[in-house]
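User: For a benchmark we're assembling, each entry needs the component sequences followed by a predicted structure for the full assembly. Here are entry 17's components. Please fill in the structure.
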Amino acid sequence: MIVTRALTKRYGRVLAVDRVDLDVREGDRYGFLGPNGSGKTTVVRMLLGLVYATSGEIEVMGRPVPSRVTEVLPQVGALVEGPSCYGHLSGRANLALIDAAGRAGPRRTRGRRIAGALDRVGLAGVDNRAVKKYSLGMRQRLGLAAALLRSPRLLVLDEPTNGLDPQGIREIRDLLAAPRSSCPATSCPRSSSCAPGSASWTAAGSSCSRTWTSCGRPPAGSCCAPRTPTARRRCWTAGSRSATATAWWSPGPTRPRSTPAWSARGCGCWKSGPSAAHSSS
Amino acid sequence: MIGVELVKLVRRPRSWVSIVLLCGLPVVVAVFVAVTHLVPPPGQGPTLLSAVLSNGSLYPAAALAIVLPIFLPVAVAVVAGDAIAGEAGSGMLRYLLARPVGRTRLLVAKLIALTVYTVTAVVAVAVTAYITGRVLFGSQPVAVTNSGGGTTPTIIVAHAATSLSGTALTPADILVRTAGAIAFIAVSMLGVGAIALFLSTVTDSSLGAALGALAALVTSQVLVSLNAAGSVSPYLPTRYWLAWVDFFREPILWRNIDRGFAVQAVYVVVLLGAAWANFATKDITS
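Assistant: Structure for entry 17:
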């Protein structure tokens, strides 16, 4: 689904993304974990062709990005850095405009697609008021509905549960955990503290079948900054069961969410320089 | 995508409010003039306003002269400045591009929507002013005798007005000349829109893009009035803005009108090219 090789992005002197290698397969629920500023959203924008990489290669569904990104994007639904909409229009009008833009679906089934998307995110009964009067949670759901409009093969969701109440968070998790036929491969960048085995780490990674972590600057005084391979191995296997020294993540079979000891394995980071996300294998 | 942009333009309350305000200003002026019967002497005040008391069918031209210096460029600059920068500022740009909507296609759709808005605004001002002029000022009939070969000379009475050169103009004549003036003003405003559209691809602030375009226009106006800037004056965007008045001369003086069209065409092509080059290659981080 998504393959990147040595993906790098530099903004002037700031190295935002440093030689990232990704391999997301069909049916995966793939999580990006990392604190703010670690380059997750930059990677997502590069996948969608919004930002051009400094070097490296990206392939989404077999097509190179950004040269042939227009062939791929109709099958991708995205929520990047928060939802957006035209505030003076209603939710349905917003979805109608988004549906009509670009590679538009057939107009006859537009109403059904919009109704279906709103239903999946729990906004089926929404009225005609302008979106600027929506609460944050409703806007988040509307953004998700826009991403789900075309029943995409690949969903890229940046902080999809931001602003939702616990019920909403559960509903989104159920939506993402649904069987493969109704839910595509998902890649979810999410912020979390870079401490393997911590509660937030576990919670963030628990709905993902595979995770990749960008840590940014190694926390001072932690074991994130050892220099020798042996020390690294000791540090990062602390919270996991069977991580290997060389693999930065261990794919494994999909774990059920009820397994409490699930935690992200390995860390795709540390590099000299701040806010650099990279992995090497 | 063009359809989507047109729908967005129509559903935006700001579009209609700005057009209503643009049409309202000449109506206010007409009411004052009709009540007091005071017009500026010929050569002073807004162009053609002095001729209006005799015939209201010249009021569209006078109304365009009233809105042209400030109001119309501001309205067009605001809409054009909002084109890309507004989408970026509201965060919709990334979602539109991820649909996917090609960047060139988005820019072209925005340009077409801007053109539709500009032409609609100019035509709305002209039509409203025509109705206002006929209602408030009416028109004085001018007898035009046609003594042909027969024994009884035919007398045709037509509602005519006088051109700037003093000759009579038939209603059809006025209509054609006003249409020419509308086309010229629309192209001039498209030049303003091109400046604002280019700035819209450079910044994420729609207000900044509109103000930048207005700053360029004010600078151009000041330099045009300066003798010291005489060497660059023929190439400035506002130099030939009032050349459409020559449509109402008999015969029509095409020299300044042609130059006006040419200058605006160059600005539109160069600035749209720059906007496309910038937008197609920049990183979208908004």
